[in-house]
Write a structure and sequence with these properties.
Chain A: It is an enzyme of class 2 (transferase). The complex is a heterodimer. By secondary structure, chain A is of the alpha+beta class. Chain A has a domain of about 120 residues: T-fold, CATH 3.10.520. Chain A contains eight helices and 16 strands. In chain A, strand 11 and strand 12 form a beta hairpin. Helix content of chain B is about 30%, strand content about 25%. Chain B starts with about 20 loop residues before the first helix and ends with a helix. The N terminus of chain B is likely disordered. The chains are: A alpha+beta, B alpha+beta. At the A-B interface, strand 6, strand 7, strand 8, strand 9 and strand 10 of A face strand 4, strand 5, strand 6 and helix 3 of B.
């Protein structure tokens, strides 16, 4: 059975490889939607009433909900690993470049480099001391994290075989060990794929600048150059959890994969602008070569 | 490496005489690569020495599909799906050198290829390194309906508001 709905600005498709009674089915959907709503009300940069939006207006110490710990810790670690390229402090830049609440999509202001993490905030055990007003953005890993949270919810309901697809970020579990064939979308032609990856009890996430783009920007902006990278068209990462696959697929735009490989257990494939690829040897896939 | 995708392949009927094994196909490819690297070295080093011999040792990575492949006919789609490794040997100005080539065939097409330098002398290490890092086949897109897929992973669909805004901007730009 399948659920399909729109949330956090994308299309969700959740396949459960088992049948549920109609009352349980409806019940579970409500729980999933509540979980997503609660998450969005904390992290969405696009909502007036979210914690993130409120934090952008006022400095001070904020108490964060329990799921924030993993996300903040991961962001902080990747921030230092990528020399500050992967940062939640990119929020103001994205907004100034036009990727704001109203989708103005016109860069109206001169972009400024984001503040350093240590100058802007201090995070420790669910307490965030915001020292400078900052519009935080968790778009590079938040969706993946939410996919994991929904996955945990299914586990609690004793559902162990499922596929959660949040607009192309996928977490797939199969108790029967049946692999899932996932097409790697050609960013230059959305009716095509450049290959097929095979995943089993893993997550695959992609990052590409092809859809959310406007003017000379897309949603991936390098805080050092204040521009969107052009040498890489798309990246894919396969990891045990979606938050990691999601975050690392963005990091691949900024630093050498070897640096990330030393720290994290994941596989990757990068599509360069000349349509050559780089991939880790164990990225299980079939690629269509010229 | 790509074993999970190696299917049993299409085993065409046997024809006598005009047959060529996948070993030879991969071997031929390795010869081309070895000639290419030697050529590369000589072009860059004004070294006119050509390889004195090219010897190949082919080992399939998986014995899974190798059974009856020895006499597949010579049509493009009849080579056994598998990943093959070959070591190409050549004689550099300093002596014997080799490099490793790994090729994955599926439905008669190369679906993956990898060159691993194994040189021992400084110049050869340099040339093989340059060659390996420049040996980058380009990929192409295939229409989604031609490929059997469960899912597609790509950039997230953009929200309606975003698409509407882009449309508006496009309209404004036209005026």
């Amino acid at each position: 059975m399948q659920y399909e709905f729109d949330a956090i600005g994308t299309r969700w498709q959740i396949d459960l490889y088992s049948s549920l009674s109609s009352s349980k089915k409806k019940n579970l959907l409500n729980k999933i939607k509540d979980t997503i709503f609660e998450f969005d009300s904390v992290y969405s940069r696009f909502r007036q009433d979210s914690l993130i939006t409120r934090m952008s207006r006022k400095t001070g110490i904020y108490n964060l909900p329990s799921h924030a710990d993993f996300l903040f810790s991961l962001y902080e670690r990747l921030y230092y690993l990528t020399d500050g390229a992967f940062t939640p402090l990119i929020g103001q830049i994205l907004s100034d470049a036009g990727y704001d609440r109203n989708y103005s999509l016109i860069s109206t202001r001169k972009l400024n480099h984001p503040p350093l993490w240590r100058d802007a905030m201090e995070y420790d055990a669910l307490k965030l001391n915001l020292k400078k007003p900052a519009l935080l953005d968790f778009g590079a890993a938040g969706k993946g994290y939410l996919v994991d949270i929904v996955g945990n919810l299914l586990h609690k309901e004793k559902i162990y075989s499922y596929c959660i697809d949040a607009g192309g970020d996928i977490l797939y579990k199969s108790k029967e060990y049946k692999p899932l064939r996932v097409g790697l979308e050609n960013p230059n032609n959305l009716k095509q794929v450049i290959g097929v990856a095979s995943i089993l009890n893993k997550s695959i996430c992609a990052s590409a600048g092809n859809r959310r783009k406007w003017g000379k920007f897309n949603h991936i902006i390098d805080p050092h150059t204040l521009s969107s990278p052009t040498n890489i068209l798309a990246t894919w990462a396969i990891a045990d959890i979606a938050v990691l696959a999601d975050a690392l697929s963005t990091c691949l735009f900024f630093i050498q994969p070897e640096v990330l490989k030393k720290e994290y257990n994941f596989e990757y494939l990068m599509l360069n602008s000349d349509f050559s690829i780089e991939k880790s040897p164990n990225f299980s896939s079939e690629i269509f070569y010229k | 490496m790509e074993d999970s995708h190696i299917s049993e392949g299409i085993q065409s009927e046997e024809k006598s005489g005009n047959s060529m094994s996948p070993k030879l196909v991969v071997g031929a490819l390795v010869i081309i690569l070895v000639v290419a690297i030697v050529g590369f070295g000589s072009k860059n080093k004004t070294n006119s020495q050509s390889p004195e011999r090219t010897q190949l040792t082919i080992t399939p990575d998986s014995s899974k599909t190798m059974g009856a492949s020895a006499s597949s006919p010579l049509s493009a789609s009849s080579y056994k799906d598998n990943t093959y490794s070959a070591q190409g040997e050549y004689v550099s100005p300093g002596g014997d050198e080799h490099l490793q080539v790994k090729v994955t065939l599926k439905d008669g097409l190369i679906t993956d290829a990898e060159v691993t330098p194994e040189a021992t002398r400084p110049n050869s290490i340099k040339f093989q390194g340059i060659f390996a890092s420049n040996f980058k086949p380009l990929v192409v897109g295939k229409n989604i309906d031609e490929v059997k897929l469960d899912k597609v992973a790509g950039s997230s669909l953009s929200p309606k508001g975003f698409n509407d805004a882009i449309e508006k901007i496009k309209q404004q730009a036209k005026v």
